[in-house]
Design a protein that fits this description.
Blueprint lengths: L1 E8 L6 H10 L1 H7 L2 E8 L4 E8 L2 H11 L6 E9 L17 E8 L6 H10 L1 H6 L3 E8 L4 E8 L2 H10 L6 E8 L3
Antiparallel strand pairs: 1-3, 1-4, 2-3, 2-8, 4-6, 5-7, 5-8, 6-7
Length: about 180
């Protein structure tokens, strides 16, 4: 089994109920293809989501999506998961002085990214992220190493964007999210 990321954009806002209903409606198909939902990250505005599955391969997830007759996702790709020091395995906001916001950052690379380079970049820029009170949680790096979804916790989404800009870490987009556990 491998982890697979699905990225989807919606023209109208959805709620966690939409994701729950899709999971329930397609339960028969998920079982057929061996696809198990792990976590979903739903944008607070309901217009984007990133879902993580355990599946034999990305094609199994594509087959389930096709059976659901929903909009075509932006991307489906096998990945490796790389937890950060702050990763508790659940991605829920950390309790502390102030409520933290979970932020999803989507990145793409023209050439395959080397994991060691990503790790070194993180370590070299810790101070820039601390300056904005941003904590790295986890990254999902595609098998071809050309796409990545990173999770951060911060006071707000703009702090994550600012920290990434300060660190010179390009991104496609970032958005505040809530965790949706599988139904």
């Amino acid at each position: 089994m491998t982890e697979v990321v699905l990225i989807r954009q919606f023209s109208e806002p959805i709620s966690s109920d939409y994701l729950d209903a899709a999971s329930i409606d397609l339960g028969w198909c998920r079982r057929l293809y061996g696809v198990n939902p792990l976590l979903s990250f739903l944008a607070r505005d309901g217009l984007r989501c990133a879902c993580v599955f355990s599946a034999p391969d990305a094609e199994a997830v594509r087959n389930v999506v096709r059976a659901g007759k929903r909009s075509e996702p932006e991307g489906i790709w096998a990945c490796t998961i790389h937890p950060g020091a702050e990763d508790d395995g659940k991605c829920y906001p950390v309790a502390g002085k102030a409520m933290r916001t979970l932020v999803v950052v989507e990145r793409s690379f023209e050439t395959a990214a080397m994991f060691d380079d990503l790790q070194a970049n993180d370590e070299n820029n810790i101070a820039k992220f601390q300056l904005r009170d941003v904590r790295f949680i986890r990254r999902y790096l595609s098998a071809d190493r050309r796409r990545m979804v990173c999770l951060y916790q911060a006071p707000d989404a703009d702090a994550v964007g600012d920290a990434n800009r300060l660190a010179g870490m390009p991104f496609d987009r970032f958005w505040p999210a809530q965790v949706v556990s599988p139904a």
